[in-house]
Write a structure and sequence with these properties.
By secondary structure, the chain is mostly beta strands. It has one helix at 115-119; strands spanning 2-5, 11-16, 20-22, 28-33, 36-39, 45-50, 53-55, 61-63. The protein has an eight-stranded antiparallel sheet. It is globular.
Length: 121
């Protein structure tokens, strides 16, 4: 599991790379398929994964991990909706990671979405 932070270095989620995203309380909130993030609740497309960071639908970084460079891109194409995977086993609660240093603002700026707005799309 890798921690994901917002632009202000607040822990917002945990990612099992290439598979699932859990909120800080280890509730399953999203899954990853084909490099894209999908809501567990609505099945809607939320954004794109690059490495262990996440971009919104506009191609702007919204959540990041200190081990991955923060970069923006052009808006990605809307992918075809995948089949929802089976619910994973709830992972053990992770230790709260140290707060990282704030990274440089990516070219084009950060996504304006909050964690809740991202999940509610």
């Amino acid at each position: 599991m890798v921690p994901l932070f917002d632009k202000d270095c607040n822990l917002v989620a945990w990612m099992e790379p290439g598979k699932h995203i859990f909120d800080p309380n280890m509730n399953w909130v999203a899954f990853i398929d084909g490099g894209n993030v999908w809501s567990v609740e609505t099945g809607s497309w939320l954004g794109q994964v690059y490495g262990i960071n996440i971009r919104d639908k506009q191609g702007k970084t919204i959540f990041w991990n200190p081990e991955q460079e923060v970069e923006n891109t052009f808006p990605p194409l809307i992918p075809l909706r995948p089949l929802r995977p089976l619910r994973p086993l709830r992972p053990l609660r992770q230790l709260t990671p140290l707060r990282p240093l704030k990274p440089l603002t990516p070219l084009g700026g950060w996504s304006l979405l909050s964690w809740k707005e991202f999940l509610d799309q």
